[in-house]
Amino acid sequence: MLLNILKYILRKNFSQVYNISVVVFEKSKLMVCKEIIESHISKRYDDTNVTTNTDRIVETINKKF
User: Which DSSP letter does residue 15 get?
Assistant: First the structure.
């Protein structure tokens, strides 16, 4: 079940599906992995450079069409 949650998080936040193989002997360790991945995703979305670059790309595409 926890692996399904992790896969859902990755599918929800990326346009591609990424397969991650993990071996976990403790549930708490998997939850730590999940939190780290969510943190990285959140930081990427909160990064203003990403937003600025995305806006720039969209603006360029709109100008061409």
Answer: S
